[in-house]
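We were asked to recover a plausible sequence for a given structure. The inputs and outputs are reproduced exactly as logged, with field labels preserved.

PROBLEM: sequence recovery
POSITIONS: 284
GIVEN STRUCTURE:
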């Protein structure tokens, strides 16, 4: 994996690369290598964001000797694809599969898939599709199984109709930057980031709703251990969805409710405690 690359302030510097998904779509990714890492994370981001926003996570886990890779799903970041759109949820499953496979080809130790928010639903779908044959366990951060933020009724109705007749119709995703973190600098950076977008197509909205419901319904089919992290003050995603997921897969899952935390536990106040919790879970 190569040696660590450090900035003058001691932070890890990301390497960039590209891979192709199953249909040839070019996907960007970043990696933060750690020499001799026994665990490497393969991170799938949330709606509208990208891999570069996982630098704090990579730095935090590097302190535990763990490396990180993070992908830009199609339609996000520096990857190809229409912003905020998929023709079918299976395309993101294939993106995640290709990405985790690539990380496994690069890492010398165990690869632990991790999905945040929408990426958490993607990761659940990918695991359930038996696409990640080598995964021994995985992590979910604020999985987007149930919305806390209220979507206007007209958008919900329009989205359902347009998913069939105008699947590429793009609407604003209603994400308030102030819901991601209690750290003002993180919120300001989110708002100013040119690679962050606020788009979701009618087809993607319908595909996500179906995938979220399906993953909850069939959560009991998951056989490998997984950790669920959810902030109790998340104003974007309802942590009740995480509680239901855990209740439906009690033998395989462990749920850690993070009191007072916002949507992005890796970019919020007290993130070091979250990194410690993940490391402790992986050492069990």
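RECOVERED SEQUENCE:
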């Amino acid at each position: 994996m190569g040696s660590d690359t450090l900035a003058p302030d001691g932070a890890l510097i990301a390497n960039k690369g590209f891979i192709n998904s199953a249909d040839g779509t070019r996907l960007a990714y970043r990696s933060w290598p750690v020499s001799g890492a026994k665990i490497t994370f393969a991170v799938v981001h949330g709606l509208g964001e990208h891999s570069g926003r996982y630098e704090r996570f990579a730095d935090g886990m590097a302190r535990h000797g763990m490396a990180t890779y993070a992908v830009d799903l199609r339609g996000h970041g520096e990857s190809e694809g229409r912003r905020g759109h998929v023709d079918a949820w299976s395309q993101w499953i294939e993106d995640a599969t290709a990405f985790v496979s690539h990380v496994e080809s690069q890492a010398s130790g165990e690869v632990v898939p991790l999905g945040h928010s929408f990426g958490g639903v993607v990761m659940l779908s990918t695991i359930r599709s038996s696409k990640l044959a080598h995964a021994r366990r995985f992590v979910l951060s604020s999985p987007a199984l149930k919305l806390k933020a209220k979507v206007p009724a007209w958008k919900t109705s329009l989205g359902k109709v347009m998913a069939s007749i105008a699947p590429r119709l793009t609407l604003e995703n209603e994400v308030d930057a102030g819901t991601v973190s209690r750290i003002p600098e993180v919120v300001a950076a989110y708002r100013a980031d040119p690679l962050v977008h606020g788009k979701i197509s009618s087809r993607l909205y319908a595909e996500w709703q179906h995938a979220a419901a399906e993953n909850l319904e069939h959560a009991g089919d998951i056989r490998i251990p997984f950790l669920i992290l959810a902030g109790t003050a998340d104003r974007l995603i309802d942590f009740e969805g995480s509680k239901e997921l855990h209740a439906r897969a009690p033998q395989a899952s462990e749920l850690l409710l993070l009191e007072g935390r916002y949507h992005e536990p890796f970019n919020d106040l007290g993130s070091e405690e979250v990194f410690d919790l993940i490391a402790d879970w992986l050492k069990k």
